[in-house]
């Protein structure tokens, strides 16, 4: 069985690279899941994840959160906000599924827009929340 935060990470990546509005703003090659800062712009990096386990329920629903980082090469935040809007729209349709989980109630609960101290980059940190249900074997 896949750990729920890995399931949401996989689902986010698949959804973002398949969405034409997102890929019109960020090339597919610039959408990744990695630990380093981007070297190409604009880019989207699937970030950290958190799973709130709830083994108390027979249905095995887990609350999962993940971050999506948007990086742009701009002195402001216009492009970062445009990309954030496209990401939010791409995540609206549910349910999604993997081999191990069905994903319900996906929401982009918040977005933080940050100016890079160098003045050369925009950065958005988007928080995505979902409920995952373990699929029967």
Tell me about this structure:
The longest helix is centred in the first third of the chain and has 15 residues. Helix content is 25%, strand content 41%. A hairpin with a 3-residue loop joins strand 4 and strand 5. The chain contains 3 helices and 6 strands, in the order ααβββαβββ. The chain has a single domain, classed as STM4215-like (2-Layer Sandwich). Strands 1-2-3-6-5-4 form a 6-stranded mixed sheet, covered by helices on one side. The model has no long low-confidence stretch (mean pLDDT 89). By secondary structure, it is an alpha+beta fold.
**Portion of residues in helices?**
10-25%
Q: How many H/I helices?
A: 3
CATH class: Alpha Beta
The ordered H/E elements are HHEEEHEEE
Indicate the structural class.
Answer: alpha+beta
For the largest sheet, list the strands in their spatial order: 1-2-3-6-5-4
Q: Biggest sheet, in brief?
A: 6 strands, mixed
CATH architecture: 2-Layer Sandwich
* End-to-end distance: 9 Å
Question: Which spans have pLDDT < 50 for at least 5 consecutive residues?
Answer: none
Tally of DSSP β-strands: 6
Mean pLDDT: 89
**Which percent band covers the strand fraction?**
35-45%
Number of domains: 1
Which descriptor suits the 3D outline? elongated
Provide the CATH topology.
STM4215-like
Task: Spell out the CATH superfamily.
Answer: Phage tail protein-like
Q: Which value, in Å, is the CA radius of gyration?
A: 15 Å
């Amino acid at each position: 069985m896949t750990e729920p935060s890995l399931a949401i990470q996989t689902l986010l990546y698949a959804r973002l690279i398949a969405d034409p509005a997102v890929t019109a703003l960020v090339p597919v090659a610039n959408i990744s899941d990695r630990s380093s800062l981007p070297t190409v712009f604009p880019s989207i990096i699937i970030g950290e994840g958190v799973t709130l386990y709830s083994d108390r329920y027979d249905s095995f629903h887990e609350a999962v959160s993940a971050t999506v980082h948007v990086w742009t090469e701009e002195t402001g935040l216009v492009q970062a906000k445009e990309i954030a809007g496209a990401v939010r729209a791409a995540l609206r349709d549910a349910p999604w599924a993997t081999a191990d989980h069905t994903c319900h109630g996906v929401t982009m609960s918040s977005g933080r827009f940050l100016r890079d101290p160098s003045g050369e980059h925009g950065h958005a940190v988007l928080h995505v929340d979902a409920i995952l249900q373990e699929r029967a074997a």
